[in-house]
Amino acid sequence: MQKVPGTLNQHSTRSTLNLHEPKNRFDPTQLEAQSVHIVLSTMSAPKSLAIIIGAGPTSGAGVARVLAREGNMAVALLARNQTNLEALRDELRKSVKGGVFHSFPSDTSPSSLQKTFKAIAAHPELKELKLRLAIYHVKHSLKEPFMQTTPEAYGESLQTYATGAFAFGQESLRMMYAQNGGETLLADTNGEKKGTIIYTGTLGALRTNEGFAAYGSGRAGARSVAQAIAKEHSRTGVHCVHAIANGGIENDSDSEATRTGKKMSAERVGETYLWLASQKAALWTHELDLRPAQERF
Fold this sequence. Notes:
By secondary structure, this protein is an alpha/beta fold. It is built from eight helices and eleven strands. It has two domains: about 35 residues, no CATH class; about 240 residues, NAD(P)-binding Rossmann-like Domain (Rossmann fold), CATH 3.40.50.720. Strands 5-4-3-6-7-8-11 form a seven-stranded parallel β-sheet, with helices on both faces. Strands 1-2 form a two-stranded antiparallel sheet. It has a two-stranded parallel ribbon with strand order 9-10. The termini are far apart.
């Protein structure tokens, strides 16, 4: 067998000649180590984009970790409080080595969402990535006796949550279509999926309890938005899901409460969302009920 002359330069993918070394000094283990390094570097680069609005330190954080770590996605984090949002971004960067997380302060108003989606599309580290998954994960509640709730408060609650869900869906669709050649039919693209939109809901979307007229109306409104998107845009390659999260969610995936099914794990929610985003056109889940094992229903 012919000997390979020279030694491997560990800062290059090519071997270089060293005339002062014996011809048999080539060490194949160096090439193997370098190959592993190259593969790992490639794996760490995100292949697509996820956007989460309502990103908080519990469920939002767990979902974001899974999407970055297991879905190889860059994650755009949206929430109202800039200080808290930046703290979450920094914590996620520490917990997921090589993960790409960027924060964009935003509320659910149409003008704020339009501005934020434009900022995401122009961001130097995100602009080349296709939006694979958009998650509306907003927490919003108003509990008051029916006769003490003013029409103005009721309308404001709907505007914040249901209109926000509508605007978020529109902006997500615009970005997905812009990145994938427009509203082409699945029949014309061999079933190619353009992206997934998930609305995290609650049982309030299905039935409303005493004192929750505004809350239930908003949740039901967001559920109807998800249905409307699914019925109109499934044929053009956008998968829309309404996920009913019924029960407490913990950020710790290995606590006593999550191990025994008293509470949901945020990362298990993230794994479910990643599974939904990975579904092919032959079978798309539209609505599902998420609950820990011990949750009563």
